[in-house]
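The following block was generated as part of the benchmark described in Methods. Ligand: N-carbamoyl-L-aspartate.
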Amino acid sequence: MSLANRNLVTIDNISNGEIEALFSVADEMADSINEQSGLCQGKIMANLFFEPSTRTRLSFEAAMLRLGGRVITAVDIGATSLAKGESIADMAKVVGSYADIIVIRHPWEGAAKVVADYAGIPVINAGDGSHEHPTQTLCDLYTLRKERQTIKNLRIALWGDLKHGRTVHSLIYALARFGATILFYPGPGLEIPEHVLKRLSTEYKGELQRCGALNQELKGSVFPVDAIYMTPSSPHQLTMLPDVNIQVELEAGVDALYVTRLQKERQSPTAEQQELKKNYPVVDKKLLTGKEFKKTLVMHPLPRVDELAYEVDADPRSMYFKQAAYGVPVRMALLALLLGAKDVAIPKADDSFARKVDYPVYKRDSGVKCLNRNCVSNQETETKYIKPEFKIVSFDPLTLRCIYCEHELEPQYIASSEWHQGKLENKKYHSANSHWVRKIKPENLIIFPSEKEAQAHQFKPSAWNRQ
Ligand code: NCD
């Protein structure tokens, strides 16, 4: 099977079997890194980096050069026509006619999807705001596989800014898919977004336990665990987990501690940020003397700031420079596969840790907008052609997931498009909490963000709403 012409916008665009196949190609690349220069000869990669980058950008460039291809680059929005008010879609169409593959990093969540929708060539997301960073996840998984041979049943602790860290968001879904247990250790005020936790509990077969107050009682715990995602012991069984005992979990030992820095560029520089900085947890030699960290791989996507002490570098448990070095063979494999320069057999992998869900789509023009201000669908230059679009991920409560940034919202009012029977007075809107949400067929559902919007569309409150 070939991966040619595919996009990698989120980690869900690539299956477990395809990841395994990519890793076997990465092994090949690593073994003969100097001998690959014929593979992508004549191909051009456009590197569009509209946020700072060292590792991702340079490892993509090194990967393409080692494959014998060439690279064109734009690194600053100010130096491109985006600064003149050009839309991302127009830029994507143009760059798509200059290159064979695009690698994009952009501060807006969902920007990489827009590029993929319009470029007409394969697109790789190198980080879109705090949404996802799937190729970093490939490097992280590759490191875990190299060190532990498998990902299944590993206990991975995620440390630091779990709220804004895009590497963490991609990694979580991949770990759950491969059957790992995840321990969440956020810095105070930097907990994992609710929509990510919700998705973990609805789309994967493990059990999510929020620890909250319970964990205050934990004696000797180095850092408060905020939540645990326990993988099912067998993916074919329904999970029947008794109350998770965090202390027991921790004593069993952590296989990897994935440290991240405070993503200060994703917050305004306020006094609150100073607080977050002051209280940000640090991984150092002392912490690693804890018995739960005896055999722990210390990982970090880098760059580090103050959250990971330099004294850890000499410790054999430190993995972060290896992780960064794997960026070249992993990205060589990805480029060669997406450019169709290499075919690979896709092994049958265990995909049973995730549920397959086909959600209905909602894209009516009824005033519902994504609530994430940093979403590409809310930017002035993009609203001229992007129409808000959602997956209906739940009817109880009614929940929409933006197809661009994957943030969720719970709109309060609904109606049916089958209202008329010729009578205007039948045009009624209802509360989204009423039985109507299940009565109206998804294809007939109209969703309103407010009563005002419903009335602007000439709908009147139903009896239920008037009470
Ligand atoms: C990460 C990123 O850009 O999200 N860096 C990287 O690509 N290795 C992590 C970070 O910037 O903190």
